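Quick start: what a row looks like.
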Amino acid sequence: MKTIQLNQEQIQAHFNKDKIKLNSQLPNSVASTNDMAKEQFKKYPNKLSIVATNKQTAGRGRQGRSFYSNLAHGLYFSIAVIPNSNCVEDFPLYTLLAATTLVEVLEETFESPLSVKWVNDIFYQGRKVSGILSELVSYQGQNGIVVGIGVNLAGSFAHADKDAQNVAGTLFGEKLPASFNQNEFLGQYLRRFYDYHQAFQEKAFMSVYEKHLMGIGKKVSYSVNNKQHEGTIQGINQKGQLLVMNSNHSIDTLYGQSIHFSSKQFIE
């Protein structure tokens, strides 16, 4: 099934914000949507920019890990925006905002619920279907947030590495249905993302994120600076940091790029 082509006018129409003109860049192929979105932010810092493509050749995840982008039907997009907070400690919350938005938009289409593996992976039917990477960009004294999202729509992981095969899945199986319109999806995603962004200080997305958080009450293993630990997930705090009870029954607060959870322990 051929994917409906990305279209600026359709995305804008489904975004449905008459007074806000999106800066949409839709390359046929790009090395990294995040890198291109950073350049768009430098050109148009006061606009809501989106870079979207179905072919990304050098996608990356947290800690510099590669992101598998060779799926038959994948959607890769990045949003660049000035954060709606003057507090730098709030900036990482845009990852949670983006994840919450994705879960809510997808749950309007799919009957089965979606889940979030802290901090940036989306699971559907027990498999990872999306990853999120947020990065800071600064230009002429102005800070911006770039949120990159990869969504596995449909296809096979037969040619992916073993790690991807063991964990990754798709939303639609191997074939993309004719009813799926990626322009409509992006427009709806951007609208909800923008609404959460505008009301950022309320942080309404936090409770939704925690409701979908995987592993609460589950004993898990994780690494901090490559040192292994074990604990039981309790939830998140107001900063979006993960709360884990250790063997001494004290609570450890986890945050930052040095934390890694293997996705395999969350596979159903």
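That is the whole record. The chain has two domains: 8-211, 219-266. The chain has a mean pLDDT of 93.
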